Amino acid sequence: MLYSGRRLNQKQRVLSAQTRSVSASRLSVLERPELEEKFAKALDQNKELKTRNNELQEALKQLKARLRWPPHIQEAVLGKESQQQEQNLKVLESRNLQLAEQCQLYERTIRQLEGRLEMLNSKNSARSSRCAEKPSHGAQFEAVKKAMEEWKSHAIAYKQQAAEAVSRLKDTEERLAQMLRLHTLDSAELIRTSRTSKHAVAQLTSVQEENRQMKAAIEKFQEKIDEMVGQLEAEKLRNIELQENVSQVQQLRRANIELLQEIDDVKKEKSAIQGQLQNLVHEAAQIPEALETETKHLRKQIDALRKEHAGDIKKLHHVLEDKGQQVKDLEAQAEELKSKLSNLKSQQQVKPKKIHVDHKNTQTISLEIDLKPPEATVELSNEESDQMLSQMNDEVEMHKQTMRSLQSMCESYKKELESLHEQLQTERKNYARQLSLEMAQFKALQEQLKNYSNNQVVVQAEIEAPKKAPKPKPRKITRQVKAASENEEIKELVLEIESLLVPEKSLLLGMKDNFFIDFKITLPSGEESESYETPANYPLPTSPSSPAHIGHKHKWQEQKVKALFRQPDCIIQFDLVSDNDKNPDMDCTEIGIGKLPLTELLRVVEANNMVNLDVPISIEGNSTAVASLRVALTKVS
């Protein structure tokens, strides 16, 4: 009995243990839906975390795109925000570390739950085995079996749910790993954080708090993003302004390129104009030479004609003298005849009506005689008188013919001389016209060169204009600037052309010995220096107002004097210099205009019919005074 009682007590204890295990299993079964609910909540929270991570990834992409902007925009926009971004990245790294810790906690909780499930499964298996060993306990054992079967089915379902949850967790872990890889730059840390995301299922409460914190941080980050968007819009506006500035700069560059092309064209025109000028200079050099040769040839012809006809002229003079003597003889004979006729008047009653002798013009003699009818007593004397009168008339007519021939020859010579003189005058006039035309062309070319210099200076000024303007506006290009370099080049070119033109103009003109020239220097203080005249081959005027003697020496304060010689058609720049630079005393015979002597100056003055010339000069050297030189040209009486 005691044994049976003990066995009953043991059975009761076993049943109590089984009931307790059943109650524990029931409790575990009751706890599983709560776990499922927690697991579903954890999945929802993971989805929310994924969405938030996606938002963070988009924000990071935007930041990376901003970091890919050009350097000048990054410096302008991200200079102040780089520190804030670094701080934000540090905050994100700290949050990632926190998430990793939470994932570790979730893994621990999952392991604990798996351990509990294994314990429950082991207990259920032990109970089922015990129930199978003792099948004779009746309805309790059957109920326990049913409960065990139900528990097994629930355990299988729970296992399936756990497997599904594990697969879901793996999927979430993989997604979280991908998101974390995109979220940070270090791949190793992202992989570690993705592995530690398995523990994210357990710590749901902490995740909620952290999610709230993350929401607040995300809101702050969205605010910052809004600020960044505003800054981006401002930067877009700045970019638009910069693009406008770039377009304006490109337009200016195109204008500069066009201006440079115009400069090249103008340079080509300048070279062509210089070639034309050189051709004109050569032509101007050839024209005076041809005219000189023509004048020399004409003069030689005149001299040859004079030499050829000198003997004829002398013969004609002798003939004229002989004829004059014959006329005188005829006048004497006429007087004798007058006396004879006066004697015959009384005898034969002959009355001469008119006898006219032109003493002023000895080339013509006219006689008019009226005779009465002769008487029979004096026939012989009348015949003799008629013969004598007829002879005298014949001789007078011969003399008239000879004088007429001589007059015609003299007139022909005079006409030839006048025609030659007219040819010379026409040639001089034509040469003067050619010179005037050449000077007009030269002035036009000079104006073109000035316009070219102004255009080139404007181009240089526009090229050298400030390029760092904030908003350069398109403006019209003006051509009114002057540059010293271009003006100096043009002046040098003009002086070279003038130095080539002046000697060729002055060499053609003739020179006479009936002019003298008087130089007088007036200093700025009003003091007049002594005057000096032309060399000895030019005579002085006979008037008492003539200045100093021939060959007077004037002592110059400076050795070089530059002067400007003005004519109606051109401007000549020349130097009055001494051959001996060491000796300041200079004879007036050594003065010249550039390479021309003083005689050529007189030729130029005489050709232009100029009497008084005011020539301003500037003295080089130590003194900075400017003196005036007066050139007085006076015709000798």
Automatic annotation (TrEMBL):
Organism: Cloeon dipterum
Alphabetic keyword roster: Coiled coil
Domain of life: Eukaryota
Keyword Cell inner membrane: no
Residues in coiled coil: 32-123, 155-283, 313-347, 389-462
Gene3D superfamilies per the UniProt record, alphabetical: C2 domain
Record's protein name: Uncharacterized protein
Classification via InterPro entries: C2_domain_sf (IPR035892), RPGRIP1_fam (IPR031139)
